[in-house]
Amino acid sequence: MAEILPIKAWRYHDSLKDRMEDMISPLFDVVSQKQRQALYENPFNSIHLSVPLGENPALSAKAILENWKNEAVITQDQMPGIYVYYQYFKLPGEEKEFCKKGFIAQIKAYDWHEGVVLRHENTIPKSVNDRVEMLKSTKFQPSPTHGLYEDPMHILEPFMDEAIQDPIYDLEDYQGVREVLAVIHDLPTIRIFLEQIASKSIILADGHHRYEAAIKYRNDMTASNPEHRGDEAYNYHLMYFTNAHSKDLRILPTHRLFTGISLDENDILSKAEDWFNIRKVYDSDEISELILHKQWAFGLVFKDSAYKIRLKPEKFEEFELAIPDVVKSVDLMVLHYFFIEKVMGIKMEEQRFSEKLEYERNLRRCVGRVGEGSADFAVITKEVSMSQVLEVCKSGFMMPQKTTYFYPKTVSGLLFASVDEQEFKFPYQAFRP
Predict the structure, then answer these.
(1) Domain residues for 365?
(2) Do 135 and 282 sit in the same domain of this protein?
(3) Long-range CB contacts (within 8 A, 24+) of 311-319
(4) pLDDT digits over 234-253, tens only?
(5) Quick one: pLDDT at residue 373?
(6) Same domain, yes or no, for 223 and 316?
(7) InterPro entries, from UniProt (predicted)?
């Protein structure tokens, strides 16, 4: 079902290999303002391509990219490869080291209706438009999205385990994660990767905005090319693939912040009482533990008070959206329908566009925003399970935006991919099974 190809990757020049920790950057949607300021000070950091500055960021990225190519800051590998990418990490309070295993390749930017790449959450339109402009201007992809394939037999892992023994890079990133990149050039092995993925659908785990931008770019280019064949560079998209059956995949929660709200705390609690059981919490640091393993339970944090709220079971029957129960029962769907729409008055179809709603993955930063007064209040959530993500994707329906946060995030800068035809060209048929 899914056609993938190896990549003629662009990478930092070998002379910068020992400075790669200074070249990588967080993905554009997780870069804090302080991180950005520090990273921008390095004129060669990858953030200049992924989150460029200037009145016209897309043109700024294009100029920087052209300069980097001319000055050989980055160079292109002439032989396509499958890039094996491992992330070794620990979670707070745990001693066990996990390893998120995967590989980076190019996949056709299948439109959603083709049913090859499946999405599980909504997008925010402005973020998609920004990414489209970047693609049109640079014809360059500074970071991969994250896709899941299902392989309970773990057929590809032995090939990846062997390749990772001879890494190109082995470094520590901004989040304390050990990032290791290797490459497979062996033609028979690459064919095995292409053959395995060809029989599968791909579940988009992270990067919905960038992938949707790739779809739009492909469609626009197709419409403007009367000789479109389907194998041009603009058809392809950079993606990091991991096995959904891996035991080391971790999903962390994304909390909700509210600003510019006309209701005060008493008004919100009064309205919420119609739908939720409410319990006062005397230490907001305990909220995550109090809602853990509790279905449809959330934390509500105001400047000087905090509460645990949990949907009244009988109220679930009043869920009036025409969607399957497997989607309705997801905690974040319950939150967006019963709290954000029914209590806060922001309708489901308006939430993606609402300037009153923000998203924050860091719990301490989230609570801090409320404490300092830059947010009116916060809703604390818990993670969605992998089984729910798979079930929702297969149902054909979606969860609300910013539902999942697969940890650790991939980083920008380890490699780049071009959708410029001259830089993409290669007799790829040699790799096809």
Answers:
(1) 254-382
(2) no
(3) 311/275, 311/276, 311/277, 311/338, 312/275, 312/276, 312/277, 315/275, 315/276
(4) 999 999 999 999 989 888 88
(5) 94
(6) no
(7) UCP033563
